[in-house]
Amino acid sequence: MPDLHLKPHDPDQDGKILSVTPESAGWKYVGFEVYSLKKGQRLKRETGKNEVCLVLLSGKATVRTGRKRFQEIGKRMSVFEKIPPYSVYIPNDDRYEVEALTDLELAVCMAPGKGTYEARLIPPEDVRQSDRGSGKMYRRIHDILPEDNEADSLLVVEVFTPDGNTSSYPPHKHDRDNLPHESYLEETYYHELNPRQGFAFQRIYNDDRSLDETICVENRDVVLVPEGYHPFTAVPGYESYYLNVMAGPVRTWKFRNAPEHEWLFEK
């Protein structure tokens, strides 16, 4: 099995610091990249067979596609401002150019497209915000591209976990094509921490424990979830942000809870 833990590297000539492809991950659907662009830098790409969701993690930009232009978008200068981001959806067989108007941290979320929908801006006011869990299981959710919004494959969400709290919890999984009970979805977690020198923990395990890894996550790391349960814990003193990208054969999020931990829903 490929390494489930990816560390960022220095920006290449295009500003890329992280890359996940279906080939590198050993799966079929999800691709993910992060770019750290300097003010004035431009990124040009063809979407090819994939639909794309560009998430402006921090900074401001102008984004052009084959037919549309989204001028001077972006507001937050850190994910920990905890306001929803500006994002841009782009279909397959299209192209995009991103011009960084400030220093820009950009996530590129990819999955197979069918050409069903046109390019569009997803402004902050269109991002559904919600609270999930209670007590030490509380976290804040921003649904950037949920299943009731138009896309062919992609599901994109960001989560804020207070220091000392646990999220993606009680443990759940979505690794079986067994609808209506469970859907098969590959998933990436892109992590940031505040303060950035912190760390956190993520466990990935399946029912028979043929997969059972606990990963020490640091700032800007990516964790791959090819199967199994995947709870996350932020340590005291360091709040957490992560961006999830999911995709599979059917665009729906149906998960199965770990039976031995379902009692936690009664708390």
TrEMBL record:
InterPro entries: Deoxy-glucuronate_isom_IolB, KduI/IolB_isomerase, RmlC-like_jellyroll, RmlC_Cupin_sf. Pfam families: KduI. Its EC number is 5.3.1.30. It is an enzyme of class 5 (isomerase). GO terms for biological process: inositol catabolic process. Keywords: Isomerase. It comes from the Bacteria. One of its GO terms (molecular function) is glucuronate isomerase activity. This is 5-deoxy-glucuronate isomerase. It comes from Planifilum fimeticola. The lineage of its organism: Bacteria, Bacillati, Bacillota, Bacilli, Bacillales.
